[in-house]
Amino acid sequence: MHAPLSELASVTADILARLRVRAPRVHCITNSVAQAFTANTLLAAGAIPSMTLSADEIGGFVAGADALLINLGTFDAERREAAAAALEVAADEGMPWVLDPVFIDRSAPRAIYAKSLVAQKPRAIRLNRAEFTALADAEPDGGTLIHYALDTLAVIALTGEIDLVADGARHVSLENGHPLMARVTAMGCAASALTAAFLAVEVDPLTATAAALLAFGVAGEVAGARASGPGSLASGIIDALYALDHDTLVQTARVR
Amino acid sequence: MHAPLSELASVTADILARLRVRAPRVHCITNSVAQAFTANTLLAAGAIPSMTLSADEIGGFVAGADALLINLGTFDAERREAAAAALEVAADEGMPWVLDPVFIDRSAPRAIYAKSLVAQKPRAIRLNRAEFTALADAEPDGGTLIHYALDTLAVIALTGEIDLVADGARHVSLENGHPLMARVTAMGCAASALTAAFLAVEVDPLTATAAALLAFGVAGEVAGARASGPGSLASGIIDALYALDHDTLVQTARVR
Amino acid sequence: MHAPLSELASVTADILARLRVRAPRVHCITNSVAQAFTANTLLAAGAIPSMTLSADEIGGFVAGADALLINLGTFDAERREAAAAALEVAADEGMPWVLDPVFIDRSAPRAIYAKSLVAQKPRAIRLNRAEFTALADAEPDGGTLIHYALDTLAVIALTGEIDLVADGARHVSLENGHPLMARVTAMGCAASALTAAFLAVEVDPLTATAAALLAFGVAGEVAGARASGPGSLASGIIDALYALDHDTLVQTARVR
Q1: pLDDT per residue over B53-84, tens digit each?
Q2: Would you call A51 and C74 a contact, using CB atoms and an 8 Å cutoff?
Q3: Closest residue to C230, CB basis, from A52, A78, A239
Q4: Per-residue confidence (pLDDT) for residue B50, from 0 to 100
Q5: Directed axis angle between helix A187-201 and helix A35-45, to 10°?
Q6: Angstroms from C89 CA to nearest CA on chain A
Q7: Chain A residue with minimal CA distance to B39?
């Protein structure tokens, strides 16, 4: 692991400080189930979300943004058109974008579409094990992750009980989080949006992606310790992300 | 009332235990206002929600699901197409589905559409008094409920201060809940989704429907006792549903 | 300032009491990010929200409503059609409606569309500084607000750290609120919906608009004092609005 990752917790605090000062704009093409929680996650971290899908104006919104999220949780004609327009602008501007291929293991047409998006060079792809298998046609392990990262030139962020983040050369595992996070909708979607925000203020994609997931995992762990269930976790993780500081990150992070 | 209903509270605990182990998939065609709260209700109970509407892939999602919810809170061309495709698969698979005819008392075209869906044999219909009148062309009382249940072969679940659940032969009234529940959006929608989840793991439709509403009402009552208002009730009911156990159900249930 | 505004806090308590008794129906054409929070804000205040967009039935919903909100947070063909149909009914019925021109500073086509809606005589327009500049082609200050109010015959409600509300003759500034409100999505959208609800039960548009923003600001301030971050603020402001009473308003209001 390179030098920056060995001190990921304090690097994460630095990136978060930058994010709070610069307030990057993150345009999100995401599913309607996840929109409000995703917007609140970005606002809590210091970023400015926008979420319009209209073909007439998405180009302008993306041109004014600092990062882009494409989440496939709702796979409809409107969002596919929006994604095509948004990706054209993102490519022109060299803007980082994150792909979240939600539920592609449940839908063959969605998996095919996700593969076509991978060819348009996302800076990072965040997914779970079943989604990785559907996208990469391989069981996820350290080797297949690195192989797929090399193939796609994207950072691959596999989330679950332990998160694995890899580019073609480096990888890191993150062991923070809380079991209740799996009982709240849009947690993964929000983590992907946060990754886009981190990519807007940190040039190294692996560092940005790992830092975003670490911040989210630590916030979830802090909130989980206080929560009475998934309802209070959902608002608690927003509070914890807003309050997240260097000491909490360094003391709580479990990075390998 | 048949034997199982006389012990509805402990039967509900059993069904909930099954639900937590089997984690049934519930596909929801529902309005965008209710989506996040509905997904979080299902996750808190142990079910796995999916909510896509895309014509290209809804068939696959429903085929992989264990129950289906059709909620008319947003009545648009996209959702009508989605419902048609979903119901075709549900009929082929003999899958239970729940109809929630939101606000059909406010919109004549929506009421006509709801009646066409009733003809496609929902296992249960959850609605309020005004919606029952618009659907069944009769004022709701014990007699008209049973009559309508006989006509439609569906369990009719009329919710309000007291919930009434009837099939053509049996009926039960449930007196749990909390007044604040009427001040939070999507409570009825979430109760309908929970009914679909219960139908996925319990073969008797009346028992499944009554148990789902009992679980939701008891969770609401527990949360209402602790809440400072409708905002804390909304997250509290999710926490209470997640934590709901046999003793709380048996001690709190008011079933007649 | 006219007599009613000098006692805005107690007038606000009166309007809120009327709202809780009359339970006006407010139809909202709003973006999917804001829908659930907006519905919960209206319900907490005592109003009944509806949010359908379907061309087949929106006319019926608006005809049965007491006020209308048009929020441009999602600017798509479906919502533009819905707005056209809704405004026709609102004009026929002399129904008050509120325009919320979200993010028109980020999108030229959206600004052009917003200007076309202003010509259809909203009773109030709620916006932030950047949105005012895009709509009125002028920097916001006391003079330009009054000038624009005279031009449009609408009450102009400029929200920010201090809220300014003006019609062509009177203006008031409101200094309540909490910094965390800027970190939660849909706060402005919900304030606009609440303004529509207040317009349904109070004939003087300036009083109604100022009272709605005062109620929302005081609720936010009460919630902010108790919140651990933006997550708990979001549910806390709903609780505070539900519980808002005359004494809290009078003791907390900072009106000039």
Answers
A1: 988 899 999 999 999 999 998 778 888 999 99
A2: yes
A3: A239
A4: 96
A5: 40
A6: 25
A7: A185
Cβ–Cβ gap C231/A243 under 8 Å: no
Subunits in contact with chain B (3 or more CB pairs closer than 8 Å): A, C
Tell me the CA distances in angstroms from C104 to A50, C99, C151, C194, one per residue in order. 12, 12, 19, 21
Nearest to C106 among A64, A234, A242 (CB): A64
Distance CA A237, CA A235 (A): 6
Give one DSSP letter per residue of A75-120, joined into a string: --HHHHHHHHHHHHHHHHHT--EEEE-TTGGG-HHHHHHHHHHHTT
pTM value is: 0.97
**Quick check: is C255 in a domain?**
no
Instruction: Determine the straight-line distance between the first and last CA of chain A, rounded to whole angstroms.
Output: 9
Nearest to residue B134, comparing CAs of B109, B153, B151, B154?
B109
Question: What CATH number corresponds to the domain at position C234?
Answer: 3.40.1190.20
**What's the rounded Cα separation, in Å, for the pair A199 and A206?**
9
SS3 state of residue C198 = helix
Residues of B in contact with A76 (CB under 8 A): 52-54, 78
Closest CA to C30 of C66, C84, C65, C82: C82
Query: Could you tell me if C109 lies within 8 Å of chain A, comparing CB atoms?
Result: yes
Residue C256 domain-assigned?
no
The Cα C81–Cα C54 span in angstroms is 9
Q: Name the least confident of A222-236, B76-90, B221-235.
A: B76-90
A145 vs A131: CA distance, rounded Å: 12
Distance from CA of B46 to the nearest CA of A (A): 8
Q: What range does the domain containing A228 cover?
A: 3-252
SS3 A241: helix
Task: Give the number of domains in chain A.
Answer: 1
Quick check: C78 contacting B, CB < 8 Å?
yes
ipTM summary value: 0.95
Asked if B44 lies within 8 A of A229 by C-beta distance, the reply is yes
DSSP state of A167: -
Residue C204 lies in a domain: yes
